[in-house]
Amino acid sequence: MTTSDTGTRDVDTLIRYAVENGIARILIDAPTQGNALAGDMRDRLADRFVEASEDLNVRVVILRGAGAKHFCTGAALGGAQRPTPPKPEGAPERASGDAARLIRTGWQRLIGSILDCEKPVIAAVNGTAAGGGAQLALACDLVVLADNAKYIEVFVRRGIMPDAGGCYLLPRLVGLHRAKELMFLGEDCDASTAERIGLANRVVPADELDSATEELATKFLTLPTRAIALTKRLTNRSFESSREQSFDDEALFQELITGTADCQEGLAAFAERRSPEFRGW
């Protein structure tokens, strides 16, 4: 999406965010541009995941693309950019390190905001998830795919390597050989293949995507949100941690959990032989 396509714009009309009945719904609303993310959209999306982490009203997050064709097709041009300090006289337009910094504070920050979100994030993939858009879905905790959706690690088609954490995420999800095939060849990965190799939790008819995602999200409204947050954190770190470190983290996290109201409720409910009523903290 270029600036000329949208003119002066309110980015909140392109990254829609609403919280209702414990569910935060985030919609990338730029279907005529393939739901590609310009810089300001990308940054606002990252901010929303941070906001969802902090909001005790939120128990689960749903991320979706508008329309029926595209979930997100990666990066787009345009949008307001972060201001940068004035350059001294004679300095180059782009200095060594500038491009790498843009990557770190751009798409890598966005992917990190999903991985670090303290609430479970469900991707409702309604269509093509390409480039950074594929990584956007893969960073989510659970993925529901429409049966006409597909992933494309499109980078090799452009003569570049994957960004947005693709080389980190894919091997952890499907193993080295399958990840290399997807990234080296850049071929379409349809919904049935995605489910078979572990890139989707559910594949449903396109007209059932929203209802299936809502049904899954609703399960989290009665679960202990903080316990899930620390389970997510420990699991996401498992590939980098030694056994000793993972076991140590587990012990510390368990101690933290015992101080939560939901843990006390869970223990009381067990002793009283009733169903627990978890509140999310």
Written account of the structure:
The protein starts with a helix and ends in a 10-residue tail after the last helix. It has helices at residues 3-6, 39-54, 98-105, 107-115, 132-138, 166-174, 176-185, 191-197, 209-219, 225-236, 243-258, 261-271, and strands at 15-20, 23-28, 60-65, 70-72, 121-125, 128-130, 142-146, 150-152, 189-190, 202-204. A hairpin with a 2-residue loop joins strand 1 (15-20) and strand 2 (23-28). The radius of gyration is 20 Å and the shape is globular. The strands form 2 sheets. The protein has a 6-stranded mixed sheet, with helices on both faces. A 4-stranded mixed sheet has the order 4-6-8-9. It has 2 domains: 3-222, 2-enoyl-CoA Hydratase, Chain A, domain 1; 225-271, Lyase 2-enoyl-coa Hydratase, Chain  A, domain 2 (Orthogonal Bundle). Helix content is 43%, strand content 15%. It is of the alpha/beta class. It is built from 12 helices and 10 strands. Helix 3 (98-105) packs parallel to helix 4. The model is unreliable at 1-7 (pLDDT under 50).
Q: Which tags fit this structure?
A:
globular; 2 domains; 2-enoyl-CoA Hydratase, Chain A, domain 1; alpha/beta; disordered N terminus; six-stranded mixed sheet; four-stranded mixed sheet; 281 residues; 12 helices; Lyase 2-enoyl-coa Hydratase, Chain  A, domain 2
Describe the SSE topology:
Elements: H1 3-6, E1 15-20, E2 23-28, H2 39-54, E3 60-65, E4 70-72, H3 98-105, H4 107-115, E5 121-125, E6 128-130, H5 132-138, E7 142-146, E8 150-152, H6 166-174, H7 176-185, E9 189-190, H8 191-197, E10 202-204, H9 209-219, H10 225-236, H11 243-258, H12 261-271
Parallel strand pairs: 2-3, 3-5, 4-6, 5-7, 6-8, 7-10
Antiparallel strand pairs: 1-2, 8-9
